[in-house]
Amino acid sequence: MDTLKDVLNVAIDPRDPKHLMLSSWWNGVIEVRNGKIINVYTQENTNNTIIPHPYCYRIAKVEYDESANLLIANSMVQDGFCYLTYDNTWGKFETYSAIGLNEIMGMELDKFYHYKFLWTANNKILVLDNNGNKVLLDPNNGSYDKTTKVNCITQDMDGEMWIGTDKGIKVAYNIADIFETSDGLTSKTECQNIIYQENGIAQYLLNFENITCIMIDGGNRKWVGTERNGIYVLSASGNEQLFHFTAENSPLISNRIICMAQNGKTGEVFIGTDRGIVSYKAESTKGAEEAGKLTVYPNPLRPHHSGTIAIKGFVADSDVRITDVAGKTVAHLKSIGGQAVWDGRNFNGEEVASGVYLIFSSAEEGSRTACGKVLIIR
């Protein structure tokens, strides 16, 4: 293990959570099973699929798709997109004609049309389909605030591609026709600035920030990491700032954010910084596929508890009503993803009395319902 270095990311095999693939900016692709390294994939054992840049391998990212094919972004070579199919067949697509030998910085997989987005150090975004057809997406096409570097791309739950740049955020709202071009190579799809109003003045969203990473939580909210100003949490549309966490106003240990990820079941957000990792218990969780029994914590709610009540297990964005045993509604909520948070108060802002409270939810015009209850002791 001492000879393996510069691991950039880890991909978990959807068929076996103990089977991992690691991208190395030196050694190639590293395979781990049950905590032990079992293979290192290079030019020699991949049928010349993974080719090194003159003196070392530059694997920017590895990721499994929904069919358990391993997809590989290999930087600064002729064939920058490689793959290992679920049945262990190696293959690759040529990328030189679109991006040359430019340094590939990352890769994002589209879950709607199965496109692959690779971005380079010189502000290019290469999009590939499953047949190796390719097109360039210009991050400045359709935007008024021009940028010189793409740092990250993340797809949200609506299929929109959120692009983090050196001057804020761009969004490709519709990628269905991304392969339509005017010159045979450059897509007509626009990457637009988000414009919001502040004190009556129109501004571009976070255009003074160098965006390092974007994470989509269970409620489709955007967590935006920056190089020097902590984390902005935005509404699903990006038009509203919900939180701004910094080292000065929160337990965040540094304002330089490297990466973020969320545990979809618990809602906990893990934040990687240049000084270590911290976590934050967010309000959102991943929505359940089917409604059923709800989980409530704490339950019972005992005297002197100063926090909120977390209710999990909803279908995403459910309508939630809380009633007393007589059927009187005391609170009306909307789940953020698969979780709703109640402060234990009624519509007048008063703490509800001791007793059992019933929780009802519905989604998709009432077609999918869930129920639960909580005991409150004052």
In short:
This protein has 378 residues and is mainly beta. The chain is built from 1 helix and 32 strands.
Largest sheet: 4 strands, antiparallel
> Helix count?
1
The poorly predicted ranges are none
Average pLDDT for all residues: 91
> Into which percent range does the helicity of residues fall?
under 10%
Polypeptide structure, described:
The chain is an all-beta fold. Helices cover 1% and strands 44% of the residues. It has one helix at residues 96-99, and strands spanning 7-12, 19-24, 28-33, 36-41, 59-64, 70-74, 81-84, 90-93, 104-109, 116-120, 125-128, 134-137, 150-155, 161-165, 168-172, 192-193, 195-198, 201-204, 211-216, 222-226, 231-234, 241-245, 257-262, 268-273, 276-281, 295-297, 309-312, 319-324, 329-334, 339-342, 355-363, 368-376. The chain has a 4-stranded antiparallel sheet with strand order 1-2-3-4, with no helix packed on it. Strands 5-6-7-8 form a 4-stranded antiparallel sheet, with no helix packed on it. It has a 4-stranded antiparallel sheet with strand order 9-10-11-12, with no helix packed on it. The radius of gyration is 23 Å and the shape is globular. The N and C termini lie far apart (56 Å). The model has no long low-confidence stretch (mean pLDDT 91).
Summarize the topology.
Blueprint lengths: L6 E6 L6 E6 L3 E6 L2 E6 L17 E6 L5 E5 L6 E4 L5 E4 L2 H4 L4 E6 L6 E5 L4 E4 L5 E4 L12 E6 L5 E5 L2 E5 L19 E2 L1 E4 L2 E4 L6 E6 L5 E5 L4 E4 L6 E5 L11 E6 L5 E6 L2 E6 L13 E3 L11 E4 L6 E6 L4 E6 L4 E4 L12 E9 L4 E9 L2
Antiparallel strand pairs: 1-2, 2-3, 3-4, 5-6, 6-7, 7-8, 9-10, 10-11, 11-12, 13-14, 14-15, 15-16, 17-18, 19-20, 20-21, 21-22, 23-24, 24-25, 26-27, 27-30, 28-29, 28-31, 31-32
